[in-house]
């Protein structure tokens, strides 16, 4: 599971680098089939990972910050780095004993739900991969080559 987090972090960095080569207007344009614009989708990926892993660490689920505070590529890079610094130690310390721990969370309807930690960890991984697929489609729509989604050749298993 750790390798998939590392994969997501590498791909995220590659996409942020990709964003440097795209006009800001294109990055902020509202898109069909996702949570919003390219930059908002990157923000959403970072924010969701941070919120869920913070909750698993026993911290209160943070409120989503206003996107306007992170609506630029460098702002998102900095936000991602700050979030990563806070959650990476927990992810690197993951062990089998944590798989079945229970997190209770109130959903948007105000109803309490319970989840196993392992389920949330895998959800966070799949969530980012899902949205990276959306970014790939949007990149082709604007005539740009998407970032490769290949897990191999990234040096993760060296």
Task: Describe, in plain words, how this protein is organized in 3D.
It is a single chain. By secondary structure, the chain is mostly helical. The protein has a single domain (2-141), classed as Four Helix Bundle (Hemerythrin (Met), subunit A), CATH 1.20.120. Helix content is 55%, strand content 6%. The protein has helices at residues 2-19, 24-28, 38-56, 73-92, 117-141; strands at 102-106, 112-116. A hairpin with a 5-residue loop joins strand 1 and strand 2. The longest helix is centred in the last third of the chain and has 25 residues, at 117-141. The radius of gyration is 16 Å and the shape is globular. It starts with a helix and ends in a 17-residue tail after the last helix.
Features:
two-stranded antiparallel ribbon, globular, 158 residues, Four Helix Bundle (Hemerythrin (Met), subunit A), mainly alpha, single chain, 5 helices
Question: What's the quick description here?
Answer:
This protein has 158 residues and is mostly helical.
């Amino acid at each position: 599971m750790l390798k998939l987090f590392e994969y997501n972090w590498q791909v995220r960095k590659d996409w942020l680098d990709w964003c440097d080569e795209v006009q800001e207007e294109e990055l902020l344009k509202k898109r069909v089939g996702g949570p919003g614009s390219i930059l908002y989708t990157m923000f959403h990926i970072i924010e969701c990972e941070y919120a869920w892993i913070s909750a698993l660490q026993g911290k209160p689920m943070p409120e989503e910050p206003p996107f306007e505070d992170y609506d630029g590529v460098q702002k998102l890079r900095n936000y991602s780095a700050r979030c990563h610094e806070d959650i990476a130690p927990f992810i690197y310390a993951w062990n089998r004993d944590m798989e079945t721990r229970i997190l209770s969370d109130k959903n948007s309807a105000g109803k309490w739900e319970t989840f196993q930690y392992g389920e949330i960890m895998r959800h966070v991984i799949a969530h980012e991969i899902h949205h990276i697929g959306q970014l790939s489609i949007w990149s082709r729509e604007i005539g740009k080559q998407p970032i490769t989604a290949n897990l191999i050749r990234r040096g993760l298993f060296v």
